Amino acid sequence: MAGALAVAEDSVAKPLCERAGAPPRSEDMMMKLDTNGDKMLSLEEFKAGPRAQKDPAKAAEMFGRLDADKNGSVTVAELKAFHPPHPPHHHRGPGGKGGKGGPGGKGGPAGSPPVAPAA
């Protein structure tokens, strides 16, 4: 029981985006990378991040794309503008892989008869 509680507490402590393996939220990214606390990311701070360490040249290119006003720093607003929030991901609808209008109608495999809607 204590082990399950520890796992539950750990999963609550982490933001949902980290638990689900999704990209970090703009605010989370800023908090982790902004080492001097000025609420902006310099190129050096950005390149020190774990993703940037994998490919520094690509990181510099990405920083240039994020820095919308080209002032040499990236703000949370610029991060949010570049990565607008996405609606929650949902599992496939009632029709399965093809959805309601998928191949064969109602999501069934091609050539299968249409499935009547659920009551």
What does it look like?
The chain is mainly alpha-helical and 119 residues long. The protein has a domain of 59 residues: Recoverin, domain 1 (Orthogonal Bundle), CATH 1.10.238.10. The protein is built from seven helices and two strands, in the order H-H-H-E-H-H-H-E-H. A two-stranded antiparallel sheet has the order 1-2. 8% of the residues are buried.
Structure summarized in a few sentences:
The chain is mostly helical.
What is the strand content? 5-15%
The low-pLDDT segments are: 1-20
Main sheet summary: 2 strands, antiparallel
Helix content: 40-55%
Backbone CA Rg: 22 Å
User: What's the rounded overall pLDDT mean?
Assistant: 73
What is the number of strand segments? 2
CATH architecture of the domain at 24-82: Orthogonal Bundle
Count of individual helical segments: 7
Principal-axis shape: elongated
Q: Which superfamily, in CATH terms, is the homologous superfamily of the domain at 24-82? A: EF-hand
CATH top level class name of the domain at 24-82:
Mainly Alpha
> What is the end-to-end distance?
41 Å
By secondary-structure content and strand pairing, the structural class works out as mainly alpha
Q: Look up the CATH topology of the domain at 24-82.
A: Recoverin, domain 1
Order of helices and strands: HHHEHHHEH
